[in-house]
Amino acid sequence: MTFAEVANDPNVELAMSIAKAAGEQLLVRPEHLEIDTKSSATDVVTQMDREAEAYIVAQLKKHRPDDAILGEEGANFLGSSNFQWVIDPIDGTVNYLHQIPHWCVSIGLKNRQTGESIAGVVYAPVYDQMYISSLGLGSWVIDQGVPRILQVSACKQLSDAVIGTGFGYASSRRASQARVLAQVLPQVADIRRLGSCAIDLCLVADGVLDGYYERGVNDWDHAAGELIAREAGAIASGLRGNKVGNDMIVVTTSGIHADLVAILEANNADSDVIEIEV
Question: What is the pTM of this model?
């Protein structure tokens, strides 16, 4: 598996060019951002999210008119082919809004028959890092112009692991996630909450984080990053034998996956129910 094999995959090549152009546009911020809210007051969307999605959709329609497209900001084209592009124009919008550099453009391609991602690109413009993967061909990062193969860490003990996570937008969801976090934190080396699921999954792929879990992620959050992590050697699943989904995503090195899943299952991390002792 070589860098050229992945980078020359037509799907990856197209996604890279679109993500790069969209990311460069996003770096040019207007003086005053138009901001709206979606599911809650903390679930924000800017005009830059919408403009970036419109650009990505237009480019995909131009080059792959038969493919389906699903986007966070409302794009939903059924298409006639067996493929679906899943896009998040800005994963980490709150970071983008507050000028925290941890945000990215995420573009994944799924096989609609199997539901499996077959290509993934995550571009972090501020860092100038382009993470890429093609199913069966491994994962790479182009770090400031220099390609480097990705490989998960060798972590085998949960007590040695640095784990990433994320929080939802609704206060009830956050309260439940805080309850679970209080049970996970004493059993790991440390926790990081960085604000972009897609980049965090790439950090698992790069061995920077040893694992990641979160309840409430959508396809556009992980379609690209999950593939990049798996192709770098990570194990990905939900809880209770389920696949990755909105209820839970757990992506870790093989050595700690079962232990982290067991803790999350024991604490009903896939539920928003908060048990209160009376």
Answer: 0.95
